[in-house]
Amino acid sequence: MTSRCDLSPVWAELQAHYAASGRGFDIRDAFKTDAGRFGALSFEAPEVFADLSKNRIDAPTLALLLKLARDCGLEARRDALLRGDPVNHTEGRAVLHTTLRAPAGSDAPFNAEVQASLDAMLAFADSVRRGERGQITDVVHIGIGGSDLGPAMVVQALQAFGRRDLKLHFVSNVDGHDLAPVLAGLDAKHTLFVIASKTFTTQETLANAQAAKAWFLAAGGTDVARHFVATSSNTAAAAAFGIDTAFGFWDWVGGRYSLWSVIGLPIAVAVGADNFRELLAGAHAMDQHFASAPLEQNLPVLLGLIDIWYRNFHGFTSRSVAPYHQGLRRLPAYLQQLEMESNGKGVDLDGNALSIGTSPVVWGEAGTNGQHAYFQMLHQGTDVIPVEFIAVKRPNHGASGELAEKLADQHRKLLANCLAQSQALMQGKTAAEALTEKAPTASATLDRDVLSRHRSFPGNRPSTTLVLDALTPRSLGALIALYEHRVFVTGALWGINSFDQWGVELGKALCNQLLPRLESGDAAGLDGSTAGLLQRLTAA
Ligand code: F6P
């Protein structure tokens, strides 16, 4: 058994399979020859239905990928993760975000501590909602990366479960253009600030927190202790900063996996304790699926294996995510951190340089907006970029009467667009087909053959479609957990540590060195480019 997929003997089998039939695989032909393809390649996981049939895979490909997973000991590595082994070996830490969503009384590690922390956080959130901490109309959440993206994405996605009289604002960037417009519309008396930072050392967050505190006092705020709370695993630093109410968590909760912990406080304030528990329950259901479903039916495993197939055999370097729900518009940004910070690594667990690709670029935009921006490239560009569509069957517009009917019709349009895009990517259009069509906006003088080549589509472009019945706290929890586990699967097979992020350190250190020079303008000893830019930015 080997733990790194490219060192497994199955890797060579997959390479041979790719050369023999994978490279030339045509999804259209696969549908023609197999009437049962959709049934065979669509899967049910808790809250999520997945159609994998528009991918460049078939039963032999999946069988080999599953053999690879087993040869790399994926199940044992998953079990080690869930058991709380120190799988983040460069920091000597367990990785136990799954324990945060295990129900009370379960035998998950640290269950008693987790439940106590959850109860306290939810009680606080509900006290804010009930007005027991004064009449709070606005909550400003200050954090960045994992202390921002998850809560911000979830609050937006669950807007239908929120309250109009309680607004949530998220400030992350050290750029004052983020904080200033938020503060401009607020009344200090009715504002609660949540300072979220796992380490409580992050430059951006501390700077924004200081500025917010200064604004609060200048704006007539009197009770800092009541209007500022912190969520952090470094509650001592929060206290030193002057915040009395701090909700703590543990070093075994990674920043990008922390929305389930007290970092989720703004979610709980926005949607209430019961809905927060539903979010956890959805994630827990997916955890159980990941922990126990046979690999052949295990959705995070299957998605991860297809990712490996595309990244390392087809050589696709990017994946686009297109959620067809406006509430999920921040999901691509959230997934960027989840996947790229986790799996953007170049050495294996033993520190050996990898000679295969790891994390793809993950990017995207809500549908249908993306269609009018970059989908042109997805359809006709020279790179093949697998697309992940997310469709939500039942909308929740919160409208009534004629508006409700209009919006229901718009929802059908939204779904039709979603289906049409994956269909078009797969189907394509030959030049011969294009030649037979009328194109009213085309040049009347251009040679028709030339024009038909401009109007043809290669097709055979792969996509996955995930379907949620409705966007609810429970289904969202399951969806996020699905992505978390999929990222674990690819990282485990690549033999990397998905749970550290040393790659962000160098820039932080250099920033600290440059900061005083931004004031003094001193460029001595810097490389030519940095010196030139510094002088340009600091010249009177
Ligand atoms: O960007 C690096 C990082 O450490 C992320 O991993 C983390 O989510 C973010 O900074 C914020 O860190 P903290 O929660 O400690 O402020």
* Biggest beta sheet attributes: 6 strands, mixed
Main-sheet strand order equals: 1-2-11-10-8-9
First CA to last CA: what distance?
A: 64 Å
> Helical region count?
22
Uncertain stretches: none
Q: Would you mind describing this structure in some detail?
A:
The chain has 540 residues and is an alpha/beta fold. It contains 22 helices and eleven strands. The chain has helices at residues 9-22, 27-33, 37-40, 59-71, 74-83, 111-129, 149-157, 176-184, 203-218, 224-227, 235-241, 265-271, 273-292, 299-314, 331-343, 375-380, 401-427, 431-436, 448-454, 473-494, 505-520, 528-538, and strands at 42-45, 48-51, 138-142, 167-171, 191-196, 228-232, 245-248, 318-324, 361-364, 387-394, 463-470. The protein has a six-stranded mixed β-sheet with strand order 1-2-11-10-8-9, with helices on both faces. A five-stranded parallel β-sheet has the order 4-3-5-6-7, with helices on both faces. Strand 1 and strand 2 (48-51) form a beta hairpin. The structure holds 6-O-phosphono-beta-D-fructofuranose. It comes from Roseateles asaccharophilus. It is found in: Cytoplasm. Keywords: Cytoplasm, Gluconeogenesis, Glycolysis, Isomerase.
List the helices and strands and how they pair.
Elements: H1 9-22, H2 27-33, H3 37-40, E1 42-45, E2 48-51, H4 59-71, H5 74-83, H6 111-129, E3 138-142, H7 149-157, E4 167-171, H8 176-184, E5 191-196, H9 203-218, H10 224-227, E6 228-232, H11 235-241, E7 245-248, H12 265-271, H13 273-292, H14 299-314, E8 318-324, H15 331-343, E9 361-364, H16 375-380, E10 387-394, H17 401-427, H18 431-436, H19 448-454, E11 463-470, H20 473-494, H21 505-520, H22 528-538
Parallel strand pairs: 3-4, 3-5, 5-6, 6-7, 8-9, 8-10, 10-11
Antiparallel strand pairs: 1-2, 2-11
Helix pairs in contact: 1-4, 4-14, 6-12, 7-12, 12-13, 13-20, 14-20, 15-20
Bound molecules: 6-O-phosphono-beta-D-fructofuranose (F6P).
The site of 6-O-phosphono-beta-D-fructofuranose has 14 residues, from loops.
